[in-house]
From TrEMBL:
<dbReference type="GO" id="GO:0004672">
    <property type="term" value="F:protein kinase activity"/>
</dbReference>
<feature type="binding site">
    <location>
        <position position="249"/>
    </location>
    <ligand>
        <name>ATP</name>
    </ligand>
</feature>
<keyword id="KW-0677">Repeat</keyword>
<dbReference type="InterPro" id="IPR046959">
    <property type="entry name" value="PRK1-6/SRF4-like"/>
</dbReference>
<keyword id="KW-1133">Transmembrane helix</keyword>
<dbReference type="Pfam" id="PF07714">
    <property type="entry name" value="PK_Tyr_Ser-Thr"/>
</dbReference>
<dbReference type="InterPro" id="IPR011009">
    <property type="entry name" value="Kinase-like_dom_sf"/>
</dbReference>
<keyword id="KW-0675">Receptor</keyword>
<keyword id="KW-0472">Membrane</keyword>
<comment type="similarity">
    <text>Belongs to the RLP family.</text>
</comment>
<keyword id="KW-0547">Nucleotide-binding</keyword>
<protein>
    <recommendedName>
        <fullName>Protein kinase domain-containing protein</fullName>
    </recommendedName>
</protein>
<keyword id="KW-0433">Leucine-rich repeat</keyword>
<dbReference type="Pfam" id="PF00560">
    <property type="entry name" value="LRR_1"/>
</dbReference>
<keyword id="KW-0812">Transmembrane</keyword>
<dbReference type="InterPro" id="IPR001611">
    <property type="entry name" value="Leu-rich_rpt"/>
</dbReference>
<dbReference type="InterPro" id="IPR017441">
    <property type="entry name" value="Protein_kinase_ATP_BS"/>
</dbReference>
């Protein structure tokens, strides 16, 4: 925060190589200048907590490298630009009550053409203002009146046909609806048996018959919302047998494949089982609504434990090491099945009641054929800092090495308790750079989570940090694969087994 006032200068367009623009928490006013759309290399823009007004230039949608564009808490209005802004995080536009678009949950008012009013009593040409001869006036009046009558009659007939059709469809639907049909709180429905009509909705549970009868009202109930991510909201509901499940409502229907492709890929993902992966239990399909049904993991996310936890649920070093190892095993299993995660971040790592980590939200690339470009342009903003650098290059093939990079960042996050990117008052701290500098200067203890200092083994924490840095190499070929990562972690842990604490060296102890 620098208390900068005035308007954003249009001369910024001269900074053609500018990639990060952070002007948040100031007193800037006026519109967002059109010249920003000329900065082709922009990746991160933060204009939040200012007094900006007016509409956003439509040309901003042409910026190809945007990862984050935060305009929250201003006085902006009108419709969000297209492209990247169609899928921007709601938190990035919050606090602008006059903005509209998909991310704001406010629909923009439709711009309708001005209605044509036929006035049979008018004798003036509305275009030229000149008078018409009486004979032409009479002909025009007769034509206008007869046209209105014809249009009215046709409208009545059309409305009647539509009404009869709708009634017939409702009667058929009610007649064919089985007692096992489950009502969604938003008006859609689940059907026990697969339906050949995709519009009626199709629910499939891989473990057997679906049974939501006791929890149907909570399926998409906001009171049961667990959280929101880049690709949708997650809700908790309970089966009749008492088992809870998590239901992810995809908010990217425009990117979903056809029903046939969607179901084929979901069924493949449903067969993936591993102790360190969140199991996909089933799915629901309509052309406008897709739900993924997962096992419910009760312990919350890794992000919550690291950054929102209290002293009561502080993670010990042993717990953290096991989380790092478990994440590696889960990803290694995915890669053996040729599944790339694409969207690794601490909020997608869940902790079960026994402290075991489970990697969630994997395999979306199989459901969303445009996901690689979609992530690059929009949703990955929520995973800023976990992204491998090759995501920024459209010509580079995305491989498992991108997940290795994300894992490396996660490992460092677990050790340090710090986020991948932290915005200070006058600086931006990148976790990988901070850890690398600390190791080079021999100041390991300065970047370890404060609560761990004095209680973490040097022989374990330093190799883990070095492994994290190797995984985040800028060159993909220099990163190990996840099977190698698992082997390295197991070797790091083995030497300390069976040793007495008195013979071990702890970080922070003399």
């Amino acid at each position: 925060k620098n208390s900068i006032a005035g308007k954003i200068p249009t001369s910024l367009e001269r900074c053609s190589s500018l990639s990060v623009l952070i002007l948040s928490h100031n007193s800037l006013e006026g519109p967002v200048p059109l010249t920003l759309s000329k900065l082709a290399n922009l990746q991160v823009v933060d204009l939040s907590f200012n007094e900006l007004s007016g509409t956003l230039p439509k040309q901003l949608a042409n910026l190809q490298h945007l990862l984050s564009f935060n305009i929250s808490h201003n006085n902006l209005q009108g419709e969000l630009p297209g492209g990247f802004f169609n899928t921007i995080s709601p938190s990035s536009v919050a606090g602008n009550p006059s903005l509209c678009g998909s991310a704001t949950n406010r629909s923009c008012a439709a711009v309708l053409p001005k209605p044509i009013v036929l006035n049979p009593n008018s004798t003036t040409d509305s275009y030229s203002g000149s008078s018409l001869p009486p004979m032409l006036v009479r002909k025009r009046n007769i034509f206008s009146i007869s046209s209105l009558i014809a249009i009215g009659a046709a409208a009545v007939i059309v409305i009647g046909v539509i009404a009869i059709t709708v009634l017939n469809l409702r009667v058929r639907a009610l007649a064919s609806q089985s007692p096992a049909t489950v009502a969604l709180s938003n008006g859609d429905s689940f059907s026990h048996s697969p339906s050949t009509d995709a519009n009626s909705g199709k629910l499939v549970m891989f473990s057997g018959e679906p049974d939501f009868s006791s929890g149907s009202q909570a399926l998409l109930n906001k009171d049961c919302e667990l959280g929101r991510g880049g690709f949708g909201a997650v809700y908790r509901t309970v089966l009749q047998n008492g088992n809870p499940v998590a239901i992810k409502k995809l908010t990217v229907s425009s990117l979903v494949k056809s029903q046939e492709d969607f179901e084929r890929e979901v069924k493949k993902l449903g067969k993936i089982r591993h102790p360190n992966l969140v199991a996909l239990e089933g799915y629901y399909w309509t052309p406008s609504l897709q739900l993924l049904i997962y096992e419910f993991v009760s312990g919350g996310s890794l992000h919550k434990h690291l950054h929102e936890g209290s002293g009561g649920n502080f993670l010990s070093w042993n717990q953290r090491f096991n989380i790092i190892l478990g994440m590696a095993k889960g990803l290694s299993h995915l890669h053996q099945l040729n599944v790339i995660h694409y969207n690794l971040k601490s909020s997608n790592i869940l902790i079960d009641s026994s402290g075991e980590p489970k990697v969630g939200d994997f395999g979306l690339a199989r459901l969303l054929p445009m996901l690689d470009r979609y992530i690059l342009s929009s949703k990955i903003q929520s995973a800023l800092g976990y992204m491998a650098p090759e995501f920024a290059c459209r010509t580079v093939k995305i491989t498992e090495k991108c997940d290795v990079y994300g894992f490396g960042v996660l490992a460092l996050e677990v050790v340090t308790g710090k986020k991948p990117v932290e915005y200070m008052e006058d600086d931006v701290v990148v976790l990988c750079d901070m850890v690398r500098g600390a190791l080079e200067e021999g100041k390991v203890e300065e970047c370890i989570d404060e609560g761990l200092r004095g209680n973490v083994l040097v022989d374990e924490v330093v190799p883990v940090m070095k492994l994290g840095l190797i995984c985040t190499s800028q060159v993909p070929s220099n990163r190990p694969d996840m099977r190698e990562v698992v082997n390295i972690l197991e070797l790091i842990r083995c030497p300390s087994e069976g040793q007495e604490d008195s013979g071990l060296s702890y970080v922070g102890h003399a």
